[in-house]
Design goal:
By secondary structure, this protein is mostly helical. The chain has helices at residues 15-20, 29-37, 49-89, 91-99, 101-120, 127-147, 152-171, 179-190, 196-223. The longest helix is centred in the first third of the chain and has 41 residues, at 49-89.
């Protein structure tokens, strides 16, 4: 019985099944290598990874620096606005500062002196903040003396125009020219990240000069 049994060949696989297994399984050696050493670079990516990390850290430090500058600038402007508003709400203070012009000169030269001291100790904390506070107080007093001779309506209008112009110029600082724009570009690009005091003083003086210029223009228009 067994001798008469013929050998039967095994059934052939389907042609589609053969084509699906024609390729060998993928190798995972390359993926393991990429996980350890990083993914392969593209043809256009020629920057080293350590350079990318350095640029990323510099961008973070620069953003932190800009936030510090504008925080200090906000405090300076707020102090100046308070000092100027006192002359409108206190008749005694207004009369005193107008009848004692020597205090104006004292505040002017004091502001210059403390500004120089602030630049000298701009990296020495908290000495730089002490000198900066004294400079801001002297400058705020001088501005309050100037604004006391103007109508309160004109002062408020000049303040609104100044803030609006400064915000607009700051938004386009990288694309335009002008003394505020140049100083804003210096803040964003060229000042060292530890020189937020010097950067805030530069912007503060620019805003004060712009405010005084607008104040004179509005006053001349009212007189005409």
């Amino acid at each position: 019985m067994a001798a008469n049994t013929k050998y039967q060949p095994a059934p052939q696989r389907d042609s589609l099944e053969e084509s699906s297994y024609a390729q060998p399984p993928p190798s995972y050696q390359q993926d393991d290598h990429a996980a350890l050493l990083g993914a392969p670079r593209s043809e256009d990516d020629n920057l080293p990874d350590d350079f990318k990390a350095s640029v990323f850290k510099q961008d973070i430090h620069r953003r932190t620096f800009i936030r510090k500058v504008y925080a200090i600038l906000t405090v300076q402007l707020f102090a100046t606005a308070i000092a100027s508003s006192i002359s409108f709400y206190s008749a005694a203070y207004k009369s005193w500062i107008q009848n004692n012009p020597w205090m104006m000169y004292l505040g002017l030269f004091g502001a210059i002196g403390f500004m120089l001291l602030t630049f000298w100790k701009r990296k020495s904390y908290p000495t730089n903040l002490i000198f900066l506070s004294a400079f801001t107080a002297m400058e705020a007093y001088c501005i309050s003396v100037v604004t006391s001779f103007y109508d309160s309506k004109i002062v408020i209008e000049a303040l609104v125009f100044t803030l609006g112009i400064f915000v607009a110029l700051t938004l386009f600082a990288c694309q335009s020219n002008g003394y505020i724009l140049v100083d804003t570009q210096l803040v964003m690009r060229h000042y060292h990240v530890e020189e937020e005091i010097a950067a805030s003083i530069s912007l503060y003086l620019d805003i004060i000069n712009l405010f005084l210029a607008i104040l004179r223009i509005l006053n001349s228009q009212q007189n005409n």
